[in-house]
Write a structure and sequence with these properties.
CATH topology of chain A: UDP-N-acetylmuramoyl-L-alanine:D-glutamate ligase
GO molecular function, one term (chains A, B, C): ATP binding
Oligomer: homotrimer
Family (chains A, B, C): Belongs to the Thz kinase family.
Catalytic activity (chains A, B, C): 5-(2-hydroxyethyl)-4-methylthiazole + ATP = 4-methyl-5-(2-phosphooxyethyl)-thiazole + ADP + H(+)
CATH superfamily of chain A: Ribokinase
Protein name (chains A, B, C): Hydroxyethylthiazole kinase
InterPro entries (chains A, B, C): Hyethyz_kinase, Ribokinase-like
Number of strands of chain A: 8
Chain lengths: ~260, ~260, ~260
C-alpha cells in the first residue's frame, strides 16, 4: 500500500502543534539522542524510570515508549508498572525489543511485555522480530531478500497473535498490520553507523502514535520521516558524527516539500 | 540591577585559570552534555553518584550540582550524603528541581533537599519554581508576562524562606536574591529545543559559584554566558542538532568582546 | 620502538571487515560517545551491565571493556561476572581505571579487577596509572617530563606484576609491555576538552585487541589511530563541540594515507 505525503505531513503538523508528551523508559546509551529527536520533531519527551513516578507520567502521556536496551530488574519493574497504567488509560505503548535474540534475558523480557500488554507498535530489526517468534536469524551473508522475507513472516505471525502493528526496519522498512503492509524505502547506508538511530525510530513512532490513532499509518509515517531526514542529513555529512547532528536539524526543518520530493513508499 | 561585562568575564577567566572541580549528581540524559559544557567553559566536571564515594568528592569540590532529572531512591540517598558533606565544608550547592510539579516524587524530593540544605542557588523554569512553593502553573497559552510575574513572586517567596539565590529561566531569566533582582534577556528561541540546556545552565551556575562567592552575581553571570553563547551558536546553526555542538564551541571561545557586544542585562 | 603505518592500517581493515563485538561495561557519561566511536571504526559495540546477561555477552565478544567511571556495587558485580567469563573464554579484557586515585572506592575497585583478572590492556592517564601502584601524582604545575617519567615507571611496575600492556596517555602516549615501549606523539590539545575521549581510547583498544592478539601492538595502534583522527578533526573544528563530531567522522574516513602522512611514533 502507498503512503500520502500530505497525510504524513499532517501528522508532523499535529506533533508540532500539540507537542505530545512522550514518556520513555529507555536505555542509557540513547536517552540524549532520542530526547533530542523528539524535541526536534516537536514532541515533549520525558525520560523517567523510578517506580515512584512512572505511573504518574505514563497516565498523562500521549504515548509510552519501552526500550529494553540496557535492562535490569528495576527497570523491568518500572516498565510493567508504566505499561499497566498506559493500558488502563488507553495510552498507546510502543516497544523496542533491542537485542532480543542476543541474550535470553532480553528475549524473555520482550516476550513478557508483549504478552502482558499487547503494545500498539513493536519496532525492531529483522533478527529482533524473528527472535520474538522463537526464530533465529540465518547466519550473516545470506541473501538479504530471503532474510527480509523471513522477518516479514515473523512480523505477520506477531500481528496475528497480538493484534498490533510491527515495524521491521532495514534497507527497506516493512510496516505490517492485520489489514496493511507498507514498504518504506527511504534512508541512507550511513544511518546504522550512528548508535541509537533504531531506538530513535521507535521513539518517533511514539510521537506519531500520540497524534494518529491508526497505528499502522502512524508507524509508517514515522519510518518515512526517519528515512527522509536521514537522506537529507547524509547529503551534507562526511561521516556518522556529522550525520547524527544534521539528522536532528533535518527533523526540525522537515517540510511537506521534502516529503513529496523524496518519499519512496 | 545591571551586570558589568568586565565582571562577568572576570569570572570566566577565574574558571579558565583555576579549573574548579564541579561535582555533579545529575540525570542520565544530560550527563554527557553538561560535562562537555563544564569542560568548554574551563571547569573540571566529575559525575559520581555511588554512596561509597560522593562524600569524598563533594568534600573537595568547588561546587556540588544536584539535578533530580532521572531520580531513584539510591540517587536521592547519594544526594543527601553529598550535600551534607558539601554543607559542612562550605562547598556551594546548586539545585536543579527538574520536573518539580510533574510528579509528587520529584516535587517532594526537591522540597526535602531545599529544607535540609538551603542550596546556594536554585535554578528552574517558571513552573518548577512555582511547584516548589506549592503553586501550579497556569494553563498553557496565558499571557506570558503574568506567568513570569507569578514565577518571580514564587522565587521571592523561596528567597525569603531559604535565603538563597533563585534563577527562573525562560525568555527572560530572572535572578532573585534577598538584595538583588537581575534580568537577563540573552538567549535564543532554538535553545529549549536542545535537551539538557536547562540542566547545563544549572551546571554552569556551579562553575561560577565555585569562583564567585556572591552567589546572586555568580548565577546572573552564568545565565548571561549561557544566553550569549546560545546566540552566537544560533547564528551559525540550522537546527537544534548543530546548535548543541556550536554552543559548546561558543562557550569555549567566549571573549570579553562577545559579552560587551551582546549583553542584555 | 617504531610503529608501521601498514600494520596499523591492517588492523583497521580487520576491524572494518570482521566488525568484532566489543562488550562494554562502562560509565553513563560516555556510553553514547564510545558506542559511536566503535561503530565509526567498524566494530559492533554492545553496552550491557545486567548480571542476568553479562556472561552471555562477554562469552561471545571479541573483547570486554571495563570502565569504572560511574561505578556502583551492582556494576562491580557485573564487571566481575563478565570478566570471569571473558577470562575463561580467552576474550581479551581492557580496563579503564577512570578516576583511580580520586576516591578509595575507585582505586580499590580497579586494583581488585587487576588482581583478579590481569587485564590484557590497562589504559589511563598518568595519575590513574600511578594510583594503581599506590603512588599519588605530584601536585599540579610540576615539570611534565618528570611526571611522565614517574607514570611510565609506575606502568613498568604494573607490567612486571601483572604481565599486561599498560597505556599511559597524555601529550605523549606511552605503551609499555614486558618487551616493548612505544611512544605515540599524535593528538591535539583540544582533545582533553571533550568528555570521554580517554574512555573512547580505551574502547578503541578493545576493538584492536579483538583483531590483534599482540596486545602491545593493538594498544599502540589504537593510540595512533585516536591521535591521528583527533588531529584531522581539530583542523576543521572551532572548539570541543565540533571536535567531538568531526572526530567520529575522521575515525570513519581514516585511510592508510592519513596514517602514513601523520604518524609520529
Amino acid at each position: 500500500m502507498t503512503l500520502q505525503p500530505a497525510n504524513i505531513f499532517k501528522d508532523v503538523e499535529k506533533i508540532r502543534e500539540n507537542a505530545p508528551l512522550v514518556h520513555n523508559i529507555t536505555n542509557y546509551v540513547v536517552m540524549n539522542t532520542t530526547a533530542n529527536a523528539l524535541l526536534a520533531i516537536g514532541a515533549s519527551p520525558v525520560m523517567a524510570h523510578a517506580v515512584q513516578e512512572v505511573e504518574d507520567l505514563a497516565g498523562i502521556a500521549g504515548a509510552l515508549v519501552l526500550n529494553i536496551g540496557t535492562l535490569n530488574d528495576g527497570w523491568i519493574d518500572a516498565m510493567f508498572r508504566a505499561a499497566k497504567t498506559a493500558k488502563s488509560k488507553q495510552v498507546p505503548i510502543v516497544l523496542d525489543p533491542v537485542g532480543a535474540g542476543a541474550t535470553p534475558y532480553r528475549t524473555q523480557t520482550a516476550k513478557d511485555l508483549i504478552q502482558a500488554f499487547a503494545p500498539s507498535i513493536i519496532r525492531g530489526n529483522g533478527s529482533e522480530i524473528m527472535a520474538l517468534c522463537g526464530q533465529s536469524q540465518s547466519t550473516k551473508g545470506v541473501d538479504s531478500t530471503s532474510e527480509s522475507n523471513q522477518a516479514v513472516d515473523a512480523a505477520k505471525t506477531l500481528v496475528r497473535e497480538i493484534g498490533c502493528t510491527v515495524c521491521v526496519t532495514g534497507e527497506t522498512d516493512y510496516i505490517v498490520s492485520a489489514q496493511t503492509l507498507y514498504e518504506v524505502k527511504n534512508g541512507h547506508a550511513l544511518m546504522p553507523r550512528v548508535t541509537g538511530l533504531g531506538c530513535t525510530a521507535t521513539a518517533i513512532c511514539g510521537a506519531f502514535a500520540a497524534v494518529n490513532p491508526e497505528f499502522d499509518k502512524a508507524a509508517a509515517h514515522a519510518m518515512a520521516v526517519m528515512g527522509i531526514a536521514g537522506e537529507i542529513a547524509a547529503e551534507i555529512s562526511s561521516g556518522p558524527g556529522t550525520l547524527q547532528v544534521n539528522f536532528i536539524d533535518a527533523l526540525y526543518q522537515l517540510s511537506e516539500t521534502d516529503i513529496k520530493k523524496r518519499l519512496k513508499a
